[in-house]
Design a protein that fits this description.
The chain has a single domain (8-62), classed as Factor Xa Inhibitor (Irregular). Helices cover 34% and strands 14% of the residues. It is built from 3 helices and 3 strands, in the order αββαβα. It has a 3-stranded antiparallel beta sheet. The two termini are 16 Å apart. This is Large ribosomal subunit protein bL35. It comes from Secundilactobacillus oryzae JCM 18671. Keywords: Ribonucleoprotein, Ribosomal protein. Belongs to the bacterial ribosomal protein bL35 family.
């Protein structure tokens, strides 16, 4: 049985933390900022932890 390949697109977008969580960039940050408040724009900067409900799916994509 061959090994499962890592999804390269997912591996470039997500990082696994030491405790097994997954960090990712936030959505809605590329354009149309005039419709967002300053608070929204500030909170969309940087990375955030992925939700627990989608963790299993994405962990399978970026397994090593």
């Amino acid at each position: 049985m061959p090994k499962q390949k890592t999804n390269r697109a997912a591996a470039k977008r997500f990082k696994v933390t030491a405790k097994g969580g997954i960090k990712s960039a936030n959505a809605y940050t590329s354009h149309r900022f005039h419709g967002k408040t300053k608070k929204q724009r500030r909170q969309l900067r940087g990375t955030s932890m992925m939700d627990v409900t989608t963790l299993k799916t994405y962990r399978q994509l970026i397994q090593k």
